[in-house]
Amino acid sequence: MTKWVYSFGGGLNEGSAGMRNLLGGKGANLAEMASIGLPVPPGFTITTEVCSAYYDNGSAYPADLAEQVAAALHRVEKSVGLVFGDATAPLLVSVRSGARVSMPGMMDTVLNLGLNDETVEGLAASSKDERFAWDSYRRFIQMYGSVVMGVPHHRFEDLLEQAKHGLGVTDDTAIKAADWREIVKDYKDVVLKETGKPFPNEPQEQLWGAISAVFGSWMNPRAHTYRKLHDIPASWGTAVNVQAMVFGNMGDDCATGVCFTRDPSTGENIFYGEYLVNAQGEDVVAGIRTPQPMSAARATADQSPMEKVLPEAYKELMRVRDILEKHYRDMQDIEFTVQSNVLYMLQTRSGKRTAAAALKIAIDMAQEGLITQEEAIQRVPPGSLDQLLHPTLDPKAERNLFSRGLPASPGAAAGAIVFTAEEVEDRAAKGEDVILVRIETSPEDVHGMHAARGVLTTRGGMTSHAAVVARGMGRVCVAGAGGITVDYKAQTMTVGNVTLKGGDWITLDGGTGAVYVGKVATIPPTLSGDFSTLMGWADEVRRLRVRANAETPEDAETARRFGAEGIGLSRTEHMFFGPDRIGFVRQMIMSDDPATRKKAIDALLPFQRDDFSQIFRIMSGLPVTIRLLDPPLHEFLPHGETELEEVATALGQSVESLRARRSALSEANPMLGHRGCRLGITYPEIYAMQVRAIIEAAIAVSKETGQAIVPEIMIPLVGVKTELEVTRKAAEAEVAAVFKEQGTTLDYLIGTMIELPRAAITADQIAEVADFFSFGTNDLTQTTLGLSRDDAGSFLPYYVDHGLLPKDPFVSIDREGVGALVRMGAENGRKTKSNLKLGVCGEHGGDPDSITFFESVGLDYVSCSPFRVPVARLAAAQAALAMKKEKASS
Ligand code: PEP
Ligand code: MG
């Protein structure tokens, strides 16, 4: 018999933290907390396998599920001494979703389940609080009505507003028991009117309705979007947790809260969070009432920290916090409820944090001895380092403060004000910088938050939806800026007598919570002490070297600053576009007589020599790979008539003849046309000039600095060995000529890119004439999939959205196809030359997932854009640790 239901709390814990795949994160951790003696209300978890079975079998449950649920529910009844559906001592439960990884606010929750016209009287009697009982009942109808029965939420809200108006009160707390009774009646009428069905009075029917709603919510559009953004497979499914209710809304000695064992924004080792007295859990995250801080140290004079208001429960919570951190060895995000001064734990999970916090917590915990140095390396997601490289506001820049909110997610961002997620997406797609401004955000806004530079909300705290989601995404966020009045209709936001309109620019400082009018200048990030500590640890364990793709002195400097160990790709064509050079480049292409062409090429030589000298100087002896000209010539052709005339004058030819040459040079399929080494073979003077410039620069800088420079000359787009043979021979002849002229020599390498399938397949032959290979995975992806790099945008997103491809193959390597060719190329190449140096210089060189793959292939280095270098260093370290673990276990 399959076990579908696992109990926790009340002395029986059938699950544990390790069972997250089966029980979901919430269920696994509830069982774990209960088993280490923490106060967890008893309950049970229905497994994720039931979710999968439910979807596989057309929304039908396994036959023996009902029996297992009944047994587990009975156990809960016994352990709390209450009975589900009993008129005098009713057990009430919560029903919540819980996937393997947390998906905040994406799926549904129902509280107070089990209330009906009879049990509500029992609750009133046992709690001695009739008002509380009827308030709980109406909350239940509201939640169940909208979540399970699909009644629009606002129908209930409108009714409540009307009732308050009629009673002449503004606060829910002023509504008396008798009035709640009436509201409950009205709520039920609404349900009947909206759905044609009465509100279910039978607790068992309520329970199964809620369970099905949670399983159903796994496939709702919000959850679907979230999964897509976070690479969560639909096949994982969610678990359902049913748990005895405890009440944070039974009076002033009750409370509910959400907190982090350390600051999730900065990583500081202080208890951090928010709570509300006399409230139910959803009130805190929903951002409807403004929550209060936990610790007195973090409270302002007008706030009421839990440490002061509920000192006993606070002390107990501090004790639990310590136990949790020691037990889980990680920062925890916890939910709790205090009922009549007694603390109950409702959730713990490893807390989401900013990159800065992840870094600080990892380093601190390693230094506190909670985790090892290797674990610390694995705790920081490499991609998140991008966030640390965020700009901040220039302290010297002028600024005009508009208002202040909470510093919810760090970094500085400027953009035009936009009030809807849809408009954000539209404008961002056009390349505009925009800031999403909302009173509060909800899961429907997630796509807009993703596309925005930053997010500003006027309501809600540090754990509000906006804050949590923005931090997770690394978006700048200022939350709860209550001084700002937003008017969606008028598309304005106002503070005092200053009104900003949609489209006006603002700047957010997510580190301080400040909102400025207009665009404030920013400065590049400083790489903090913790950052370099982690990078140092990563460098100790990684095997893969990390180089950068750079061709300008600025990029080379940035690359070095970020720890690049050389340049893996210098695209020389980028040097041809400078205003002082492009004229000569055009003359070179457009002239049909070799002597004139030679003159133009000779004019380019000093520029190239200077380019290479600068790079060699900056890289001071580190390896530098320079790729000879690659793109099709047509990219450099004169465009308009004026440009054509300029070239005609310089060459002394007629505009007509040049026009004819221009059309002769244009190709139907330039990416597969006259480019790469094909150019170097048919126009040998171009490559000869570049080789000369490289060698002359290397000799000069070696002399000047005393450092041995070993230039690596790279030939692009080789498909057959003969191509490399011919270009290599010509290059060697040019090198020999330079050596002779200068009366000196130096070491150099000549290698090739492997970026065509044929090159990978025949790599053993190509290796005979290559000193190194660098996999050009951009072109290799293009040619292996037959998928144009420049045109894929029109259909590739559809492929990824609909699961035809798991990821964009230009971002993350297609292991089975392109990856197989990389592996074949590496193995074949090394068959010929066991010490052949192997690297990769396509975009994949900076993608953590692809780096894991390259580690497994045994490449020597990856090369990526300068800003990705830290990401690659960390990813390479994690890949090395993963390989070590794999080897140890095999
Ligand atoms: C490649 O093809 O992967 C590569 C690095 O070259 P480029 O992007 O310049 O074509
Ligand atoms: Mg290429």
Automatic annotation (TrEMBL):
Pfam families xrefs: PEP-utilizers, PEP-utilizers_C, PPDK_N
Pyruvate phosphate dikinase AMP/ATP-binding domain mapped to chain residues: 21-57, 62-297, 306-368
Assigned keywords, A-Z: ATP-binding, Kinase, Magnesium, Metal-binding, Nucleotide-binding, Pyruvate, Transferase
Keyword Glycosyltransferase part of the UniProt annotation: no
GO molecular function annotation: pyruvate, phosphate dikinase activity
EC number from the UniProt entry: 2.7.9.1
Reactions catalysed, as given in the entry: pyruvate + phosphate + ATP = phosphoenolpyruvate + AMP + diphosphate + H(+)
InterPro entries with a match to the protein in the record: ATP_grasp_subdomain_1, PEP-util_enz_mobile_dom, PEP_util_AS, PEP_util_C, PEP_util_CS, Phosphohistidine_dom_sf, PPDK_AMP/ATP-bd, Pyruvate_phosphate_dikinase
Domain (PEP-utilising enzyme C-terminal) ranges: 529-879
Cofactor: Mg(2+)
PEP-utilising enzyme mobile domain location: 432-513
Function, in words: Catalyzes the reversible phosphorylation of pyruvate and phosphate.
Family: Belongs to the PEP-utilizing enzyme family.
Name the UniProt record assigns to this protein: Pyruvate, phosphate dikinase
Organism encoding this protein: Acetobacter sicerae
Lineage start: Bacteria, Pseudomonadati, Pseudomonadota, Alphaproteobacteria, Acetobacterales
